[in-house]
Backbone:
């Protein structure tokens, strides 16, 4: 059940509302940028431009145009005034606008940086001086001064940034813990046998390992340097299990990103490229390998703590226990926890590095959001060969973890909401698995979930009360509603079967309220 469709191409920030057709791919290199062009006749085209032989390589706004012009039918008219080059005309196929025609009849230049929380902005520099890095976007528009039409959606998604920790977003209680065997924290000699370590949020930062990183240094968790201390995670061992409970029902909410409903965090890392070591230094200087550790655990969920619905079809898992309902034999097995995706504790944002970590920190900003799942299309292989910085850019605000969709299970739905749900989660070492460690289990947040209900007066289902809701009332003014199938029923804010001034008053009383991600 993939509700919020965030289409991606490589690791470039994705686009929610494309200009039309798929982007035209041009150029060569390891970095990607987008260029959107719109003419006065309304025609638009979008280009995916590749450039640079190394991740640190940059281009310019005009450099992107040069690549496009060299490989497509797009042509430009440029004027050099001595102090800089000015793009005066752009033509492509049968579409052409050249020169200043008064008012907004000129080529407006817009930029959108991959690392910015803001959307399109009109820059103070021109295209020749605009520095383009991987994931950036440029736009050229003739005939109006409005921001470009594409709503570029980088991994920094509205509503998920600047996460404020809430213990209720995670499992709050451990119910049962049956470890098999045990290992100790090699720095402290303390066993990983505290089930409380699996409660609350996943680890944001751990300690140094007293080898490549000094023990007293706060080391942010990154995909190649996971949580590894006894107070950060719980060890299951081969054949072990851990049962946790949430303080609220975790539901198959309609607007969960990628349809993912909950996330399980382990501590399996992505491998580092040969000959390299993680020293808590510059993440752009360390490259990942296309492989990573996996200590697979089978995840099961329950509404009553008795009947369990498991994300596996393995016949060797609980073969004689009728209380475990497994996936159909022809279903895809899994997913399994404590593998991909490794945890990212802090957002990679060099412009807003958290000085409280120490003068050494030039890269890591606020903690990531453990309630935002990572794109399930990503994998160790997809991220391999990229720097740790580039991998962190792909995560955006997400803390990673293994994501689970309740739609995959035959678990009963709530008769009132129609949504599948659970309260208990159990993790078992997979038969022949690898003794997983569990750091946390999180409920995915989204508009419309138990924490973010739609505000009163939201009639069109966008989780905000604005002029669009008032317009809906105006469109059905004085309508008498016979049944819920009547289109006018959406405009009946107070549910009295009539669309009138009472409905409008309710909307106006709550104007500006928003359930999620208001800007």
Residues:
């Amino acid at each position: 059940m993939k509700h919020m469709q965030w289409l991606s191409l490589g690791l470039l920030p994705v686009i929610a509302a494309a200009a039309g057709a798929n982007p035209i791919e041009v150029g060569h290199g390891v970095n990607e940028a987008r260029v959107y062009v719109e003419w006065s006749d309304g025609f638009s085209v979008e280009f995916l431009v590749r450039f640079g032989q190394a991740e640190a390589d940059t281009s310019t706004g005009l450099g992107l145009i040069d690549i496009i012009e060299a490989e497509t039918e797009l042509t430009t008219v440029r004027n050099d005034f001595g102090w800089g080059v000015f793009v005066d005309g752009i033509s492509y196929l049968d579409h052409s606008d050249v020169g200043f025609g008064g008012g907004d009849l000129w080529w407006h230049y817009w930029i959108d940086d991959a690392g910015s929380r803001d959307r399109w902005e009109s820059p103070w520099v021109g295209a020749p001086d605009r520095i383009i890095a991987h994931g950036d976007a440029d736009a050229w528009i003739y005939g109006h001064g409005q921001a470009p039409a594409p709503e570029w959606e980088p991994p920094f998604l509205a509503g998920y940034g600047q996460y404020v920790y809430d213990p209720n977003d995670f499992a709050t209680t451990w119910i049962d813990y049956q470890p098999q065997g045990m290992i100790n924290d090699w720095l402290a000699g303390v066993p990983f046998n505290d089930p409380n370590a699996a409660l609350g949020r996943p680890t944001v930062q751990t300690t140094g390992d007293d080898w490549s990183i000094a023990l007293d240094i706060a080391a942010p968790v990154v995909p190649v340097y996971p949580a590894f201390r006894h107070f950060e995670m719980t060890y299951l061992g081969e054949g072990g299990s851990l049962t946790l409970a949430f303080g609220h029902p975790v539901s198959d909410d309609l607007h969960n990103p990628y349809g993912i409903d909950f996330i399980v965090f382990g501590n399996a890392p992505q491998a580092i490229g040969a000959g390299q070591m993680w020293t808590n230094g510059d993440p752009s200087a360390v490259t990942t390998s296309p492989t990573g550790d996996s200590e697979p655990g089978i995840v099961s969920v329950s509404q009553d703590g008795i009947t369990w619905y498991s994300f596996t079809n393995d016949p060797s898992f609980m073969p004689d226990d009728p209380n475990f309902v497994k996936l159909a034999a022809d279903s895809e097995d899994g997913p399994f926890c404590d593998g991909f995706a490794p945890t990212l504790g802090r957002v990679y944002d060099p412009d807003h590095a958290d000085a409280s970590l120490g003068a050494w920190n030039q890269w890591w900003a606020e903690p990531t959001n453990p309630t935002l799942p990572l794109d399930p299309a990503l994998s160790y292989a997809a991220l391999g060969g990229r720097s740790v910085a580039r991998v962190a850019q792909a995560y955006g605000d997400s803390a990673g973890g293994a994501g689970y969709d309740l739609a995959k299970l035959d678990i009963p739905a709530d008769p009132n909401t129609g949504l599948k749900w659970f309260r208990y989660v159990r993790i078992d070492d997979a038969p022949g698995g690898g003794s997983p460690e569990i750091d946390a289990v999180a409920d995915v947040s989204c508009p419309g979930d138990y924490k973010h209900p739609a505000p009163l007066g939201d009639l069109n289902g966008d989780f905000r009360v604005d002029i669009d809701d008032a317009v809906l009332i105006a469109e059905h003014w004085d309508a008498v509603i016979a049944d819920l199938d009547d289109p006018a029923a959406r405009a009946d804010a107070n549910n009295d079967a009539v669309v009138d001034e009472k409905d409008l008053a309710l909307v106006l009383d709550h104007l500006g309220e928003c359930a999620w991600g208001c800007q």
About this structure: The first helix runs from residue 61 to 71. The chain is about 10% helix and 25% strand. Residues 1-20 have pLDDT under 50 and may be disordered.
